[in-house]
Write a structure and sequence with these properties.
The complex is a heterodimer of chains A (301) and B (389). Chain A contains 16 helices and no strands. With 301 residues, chain A is mostly helical. Chain A is globular and about 75 Å long. Chain A starts with 6 loop residues before the first helix and ends with a helix. Chain B is mostly helical. In chain B, helix 6 packs across helix 15 and helix 13 packs antiparallel against helix 16. Classes of the chains: A mainly alpha (301), B mainly alpha (389).
Chain lengths: 301, 389
């Protein structure tokens, strides 16, 4: 117990005179700090280690529970890629994500520009309505959207959109967050630029494409990054609208494989690794922007 | 798009202004139209349509108009529901008294604080009474899924915040490899939850050779069924035989909570790190001069100054757990029965597996109202606090 009259400073100067000489702000016991940090890192990484290690084992090794495969079985990946159809799911995901991103970028650049730079009637009201959609939980949208996509609410061109690229991409082609992000950026562009462009006879569309876009690489990258994560990681909605393999994306493919794989854990884990690769590549390439972007917005699919 | 402004018109001078305005308006609408249409159709329209569907006996096809029958099915009778809402109101009153207490002088403060505590207890009793009535007469599956959701929220959020703040503080020290550690902690958060949840399913499977059970065997402990165990943790670990809510979360849910903490603590670490960067170094130097060691500096400088960030993270994460679906769905094994079924999973099940559309719609409206209430409370509470995040 610390005697309140003497206070902690007295105690410390008596018991640990060395600390008095120490410079700079607080340092605890360095090796203890490293120990805790390393334990945290190990716990964070164990599941990944387990996944990769298992994905390289033979079936026998997964059952007898080795830590590492005797000989890494690269063939597992070939098998998962071809026989378990992860190749198909992978390319489906790539196409779905690509199409979604093109749409998302188009709609949010146009809308972000309009909300930030064009004075039209009802601008603030429309923007407020869009922002309010950010708090709507996905749960409530599934059922009505599913019926919409099946064509039961209003007839759709081409009948039902189940198992179609449209159903998987169109609902994700606009979101309030991306518009908000770009609006903030476009609104900051000095008005003098717009005045000068007008004198040169430019309209809004030309000003947007020739002046604004070239200087907006950073916010556009952020929109792309979030769009990519959201689309690549999407699960519940694709699960609802893909009853066949035609357009089944990776996450749904992995999930259906859980029930199909049964005891074939090594193939399941190989499939799991395949789903991670694109995300990891992008994470390591754009580390700083990635971390900061997510940290400041708290968004993730 | 160019067509709206491409044509050069030469109107009389006074008309230029209104024509300009019209042109601006039209361009604006044309630019926002694609985004607005998509968001209205897929984001806003579902709420209106869900309200509509919830008033019908709607299996796969629309049946009879039934009014509020679906909602009555959820809550049982309105009596229990009204009692519960009354308790909730008292909870708000307790919070109000508590905040008032800090604005008054010391004498009144004590009285108000005691008052708040009393009201809190009364609110708790009334709410549990109302809940009991609702469970007895209403939809046990859905009401139970709300409890599971709360168990999950209460289990993950405080722990992931505590772990996050600890690692942020350690990373904030002068150490090597800061970037590497941060990157590693953030990794579970970055990777798709469906993938990591699938990996956790194999790590925490009931097989004796699963990774979790191997680790247990190192401590001479017998294998557990983990994600496949519907029994409450209080029973598995302590041998207590309790019923209902009192028994607490099942081991399967505990494992999912573990996943939640593993997956999200890195996010909290990164946010706390940003918050730590905002604390003036002088404060630590002052604390040092006053003789604080690193623990008391942490306790008396770091924690209080981070409290706005913590508070923000707490509320956002808490609401997030009510919205969460993907990992909860993937890790909900049939063996664990309804002990792992959260509200979002339950709703999904009701329309996806049971094809009971109208009823699922009414459940999703209830969940939406809960999240709306939490969001409003969050904005109100956050609005009253100083926030520098």
């Amino acid at each position: 117990m610390v005697n309140p009259a003497t206070g902690p400073d007295k105690i410390r100067s008596e018991t640990n005179p060395v600390q008095k000489v120490r410079r700079g702000p607080r340092t605890g016991n360095k090796s203890l700090i490293y120990l805790v940090l390393i334990i945290g890192a190990v716990l964070s990484l164990i599941p990944f280690f387990w996944m990769v290690s298992t994905s390289l084992m033979t079936l026998g090794e997964t059952i007898n529970r080795k830590w590492l495969p005797a000989v890494p079985q690269i063939t597992n990946y070939i098998q998962a890629w071809n026989e378990a159809k992860f190749a198909k799911y992978f390319w489906n995901s790539v196409i779905i994500t690509g199409v979604t991103l093109v749409g998302l970028l188009t709609t949010s650049i146009l809308a972000g520009y309009a909300f930030g730079r064009i004075n039209f009637k009802g601008r603030n009201a429309i923007f407020a309505i869009l922002l309010s959609t950010m708090m709507i939980p996905e749960t409530i949208t599934w059922l009505p959207n599913l019926m919409l996509v099946r064509g039961t609410i209003i007839p759709l061109p081409g009948g039902s959109w189940l198992n179609s690229l449209q159903a998987l991409s169109v609902p994700f082609m606009a979101n309030a967050f991306s518009i908000f992000l770009l609006k903030q950026f476009f609104a900051q562009i000095p008005n003098e630029l717009w005045d000068a462009a007008q004198i040169d006879g430019a309209n809004h569309f030309r000003f947007l494409t020739q002046i604004c876009l070239p200087i907006s690489k950073a916010p556009i990258m952020t929109v792309l990054l979030f769009g990519f994560i959201g689309s690549w990681n999407a699960f519940a909605w694709p699960l609802l609208v893909t009853t066949r393999e035609t357009w089944r994306p990776l996450m749904v493919g992995l999930w259906t494989f859980v029930s199909e794989a049964g005891p074939e854990t090594h193939l399941l884990m190989a499939g799991a690794v395949i789903t991670l690769i694109p995300i990891l590549v992008i994470y390591f390439l754009t580390q700083k922007q990635f971390t900061q972007g997510i940290a400041t917005t708290g968004l993730k699919g | 798009m160019g067509a709206t402004t491409g044509v050069t018109l030469k109107p009389p001078k006074k008309k230029i202004h209104s024509l300009r305005a019209l042109q601006e308006n039209l361009t604006g609408y044309a630019f926002v139209a694609p985004a607005v249409i998509i968001i209205l159709v897929f984001g806003l329209f579902p709420i209106i349509y869900s309200v509509y569907m919830s008033l019908f006996n709607w299996r796969i096809r629309k049946g009879d108009f039934t009014g509020l029958v679906n909602y009555i099915k959820i809550f049982g009778d309105w009596g229990g529901f009204a009692i519960f809402i009354g308790g909730l109101g008292l909870l708000g009153l307790a919070y109000w008294l508590w905040t008032r207490a800090f604005k008054s002088n010391s004498n009144l403060m004590r009285i108000l604080q005691i008052g708040a505590a009393v009201v809190l207890i009364v609110a708790g009793i009334i709410m549990s009474m109302g809940w009991g009535k609702m469970i007895a007469a209403g939809d046990e599956d859905f009401l139970n899924s709300l409890i599971v959701t709360i168990f999950y929220a209460v289990g993950t959020v405080p722990l992931q915040l505590a772990i996050g703040i600890m690692f942020a503080y350690l990373l904030y020290q002068k150490i090597r490899g800061k970037e590497v550690f941060r990157m590693i902690y953030f990794l579970p958060y970055v990777t798709p939850v469906v993938t990591t949840a699938v990996v956790f399913r194999t790590i925490f499977s009931s097989r004796a050779t699963s990774l979790a059970n191997i680790l247990l065997s190192w401590f001479n402990a017998g294998p557990l069924k983990w994600l496949f165990e519907p029994k409450a943790m209080s029973e598995v670990f302590l041998g207590l035989k309790l019923d209902g809510i009192a028994a607490g979360p099942s081991l399967a849910l505990g494992t999912i909570i573990l996943f939640g903490i593993w997956s999200f603590f890195g996010y909290n670490t990164v946010i706390f790190l940003a918050g730590l960067g905002g604390i003036p170094k002088e404060l630590y130097e002052a604390a040092e001069i006053d003789g604080a060691n690193s623990w008391s500096a942490f306790k008396n400088v770091t924690i209080p100054l981070l409290s706005p960030v913590s508070f923000y993270l707490f509320l956002v994460s808490f609401i997030g757990t009510f919205k969460a679906f993907n990992h909860l769905y993937v890790m909900a094994t049939p063996n664990a029965q309804n002990t792992v079924v959260t509200a979002s999973v339950q709703i999904f099940d009701v329309f996806y597996a049971q094809n009971n559309f109208g009823y699922a719609a009414s459940q999703s409206i209830v969940l939406f109202l809960i999240i709306l209430g939490l969001t409003i409370a969050q904005n109100k509470i956050l609005g009253e606090r100083v926030f520098y995040g």
